[in-house]
Design goal:
The chain is mainly beta and about 130 residues long. Helices cover about 15% and strands about 40% of the residues. About 10% of the residues are buried.
Amino acid sequence: MKIRMNRDSLRLRVGRSELERFLKDGRIQETTRFAASPGSGFTYALEVSSPGSEGTTLRAMPCAVTVVVTPEQVRLWKRDDQVGIYTDLEIDTDTRLEVIVEKDFACLDRSDNDNADTFANPNLSANCQAG
């Protein structure tokens, strides 16, 4: 799983095997460590909420963020024709956060190693942007 944060947006890109694990376990996570000391990492996760929950939510803690999506969103997203889950969350009266959870598609301008475990690119004639 890849994370991209840019101003008021958060994007998670999920590979093929990660999506399979997510559908089975209801949660996937990754941690990036910045030093050898304990607590020096950043953890990001994707989790399915309990049935009856409404919409995407976000749990943010120091050094961790979890995007929580509903079972209905997951049911639709796992279909081959669905690229992602797109949500706009109100942070406060002046700030909105765009939350994007997408399948990680193969880029046509990258090596086979960079495209390992990605989904087939539906835009075979277009170039991908790094992200």
